[in-house]
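Deliverable D2.4 — example input (structure tokens):
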């Protein structure tokens, strides 16, 4: 599910914080999806990721960044 996030400044920052391995795996999945979509081919069912196996690798970073931005905003207000 994290591969489907819309690109925002928060997502760009989160991508800087993930491991190289996670970033390469993400890029591979997106490239594979693009190739399959353009070729009008469906990914074989045995290669689908089950929902309970889906690793949310970006969500913790996105939430941390949102928290940091809120704290920064609150700090600026309190000056």
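Example output (designed residues):
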């Amino acid at each position: 599910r994290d591969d489907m996030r819309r690109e925002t400044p928060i997502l760009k920052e989160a991508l800087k914080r993930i491991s190289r391995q996670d970033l390469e795996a993400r890029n591979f999945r997106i490239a594979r999806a693009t190739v399959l979509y353009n070729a009008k081919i469906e990914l074989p069912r045995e290669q689908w990721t089950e929902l309970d196996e889906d690793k949310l690798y970006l969500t913790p970073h996105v939430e941390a960044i949102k928290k940091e931005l809120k704290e920064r905003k609150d700090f600026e207000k309190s000056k």
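Helices lie at 9-17, 20-38, 59-78.
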